[in-house]
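[Meeting: bench + compute handoff]

Bench side (C.D.) handed over the final construct sequence. Compute side (W.E.) agreed to return the predicted structure before the next meeting so the bench team could plan truncations. Sequence as handed over:
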Amino acid sequence: MRIAFFVNAIADEAAFYTTTALALAAIARGHEVCYLTPGDFVLRPDDSLMVRATTVKKGKTRKPDAFIEALQGEQAETQTMPIEEIDVLFLRNDPSQDADERPWAAHAGIIFGRLAAERGVLTLNDPDGLARAQNKLYFQGFPEAIRPTTLISKSIEEIRAFIDEQKQGAILKPLQGSGGKNVFKIASSKEANLNQIFEAVSGEGYLIAQGYLPDATAGDIRLFLMNGRPLQRDGAYAAMRRVPAKGEVRSNMHAAGTAATAEITPEILAVAEMVRPKLIEDGMFLVGLDIVGDKILEINVFTPGGLPDIAELHGVDLSVDVILALEQKVEIRKNYAGQINNRALATL
């Protein structure tokens, strides 16, 4: 089969990305891989949807560094093809990266992903589900029991009052964002720099204020779910503890966090089970949960990362299991000749 990975920009791809691991796992199983970016779709007057797909010239399976070098260099070639020649469109872009400088690009994957799904291409995660999850407000649709105490506002008075109610302090971050950008821990509403922090974060739109979880000092646990359930093989879970750098409140790998092994307890599995129904309803095939204690800080549905780090920690490359799941879905789609809609097929 042919899998197209939709990303923000090919020039920004890196060897340590989960998308790279997925691409190499697909190639190792004999599949064709191509990359698409927001400007690569063409809807022609006859209503045919075309894509300008970038591929790496055929050769032996490459190491991650060599693969990315080839993808970004002279070994890459671009060809225009009908969307129907793609079996799986894997939406792996981060809309927040394009929101400021290229707002037209932020939601191109969702817009054209819908058109691809309508034309019979398995599109993951389901674009209608992703449309509901364009910012962290999506998180508020999950059970209150697994969410930290949360306020969403642009009013500094509301935020000050909220902080005063939190005995352990609060976390401030933008409603739209990723990678730990503009995330701050506030101990008290009387902090001298609160106004400056408020201005920095509110410049990106609405703010989220969350009650601080003391267990977060040890980092959070990134746990992958596939088809609504923890991704695992023979008891090895696709999970890691993201340990923050000294003096950091953020555990994101982009913010100098480091990966460590994580114990997946019955309590963590219970948290994952609580979010499963909605993830399945929304067609969320591959998701990353960020868990502290018995709470979820974030649900990453666009481009959850960490599978290469997990493979290094456990010696088990669960990217292969993701590709196996795609193979099964494509076979189901073929056998049922389009009778199962994209959202349902996404999590079967």
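W.E. noted at the follow-up: The longest strand covers residues 49-56. C.D. will use this when planning the next construct.
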